[in-house]
Specification:
228 residues, alpha/beta, 6 helices, 10 strands, 28% helix
Length: 228
């Protein structure tokens, strides 16, 4: 998988965040309910969750009946997740898609807030690699940073595109030193169609207010299907 250019740097950053309690006690994002319902309607329950973190979204989806392999580049996150669900130890992997058999395809491929790390080219490659893992008739469920987000920390804009998308290099905050891409809706839809997928839920915006109450974080959520 064509991951972030510096996996070790990104993993170290996330290890530090999870060690500080990132996402601890936070509820799952509401989009997980849409994923579970879409999977049930399609008669699917097996798959992978790329960037599962410490499990705030993974565990509720498993409890709802999905059987998901969890992957994350943060060893600290996976350690915390194993402590929560020790019976699923053999279904939790430190790594990205390259840690799985190259020829394996899955009925469900879920990537929430992970296909945004890197430049525009990096994130497009990530989406392509992840979507290639979707089996015929399977679902590709994504949630990623969107234009319209108020940047919460000092950052330099390193690229802009005519569709409105842009990428920043953070100078401060938990992602200091990392590049993050903010997608446009048309950009996401175009890349999904180019990957041979068809829409089940077209990209929709979801806004979350930050704790300061003065800025918001925008994501696009979408579900696509690979034709049988």
């Amino acid at each position: 998988m064509r991951w972030l250019g510096k996996v070790e740097e990104a993993a170290a950053s996330w290890d530090a965040e999870y060690a500080r309690g990132r996402y601890a006690g936070e509820p799952p994002v509401p989009f997980t309910e849409d994923i579970v319902q879409a999977a049930k309607r399609a008669g699917l329950h097996d798959g992978i969750y790329l960037g599962c973190g410490s499990g705030r979204n993974l565990v509720p989806m498993i409890e709802a009946g999905l059987d998901l392999i969890g992957l994350d580049i943060s060893a600290t996150a996976i350690e915390q997740l194993v402590a929560r669900v020790p019976d699923r130890r053999d279904r939790l992997v430190v790594g990205d898609l390259s840690a799985l058999p190259a020829d394996r395809r899955y009925d469900l491929v879920i990537a929430l807030q992970v296909l945004q790390h890197g430049t525009r080219a990096d994130t497009h490659a990530l989406l392509e690699d992840a979507s290639e893992r979707v089996a015929p008739g399977g679902l590709f469920c994504v949630r990623l940073n969107a234009v319209g987000t108020d940047l919460g920390h000092a950052a330099d804009v390193v690229e802009r595109h005519e569709d409105g998308s842009f990428s920043v290099l953070y100078r401060e905050g938990p992602k200091a030193g990392l590049t993050v891409h903010f997608w446009a809706a048309a950009e996401l839809h175009h890349e999904a169609l180019a990957a041979g997928l068809e829409p089940v839920l077209r990209p929709r915006p979801h806004s979350t207010w930050r704790p300061d109450g003065r800025s918001q974080w925008m994501q696009f959520e979408a579900i696509y299907r690979r034709p049988s």
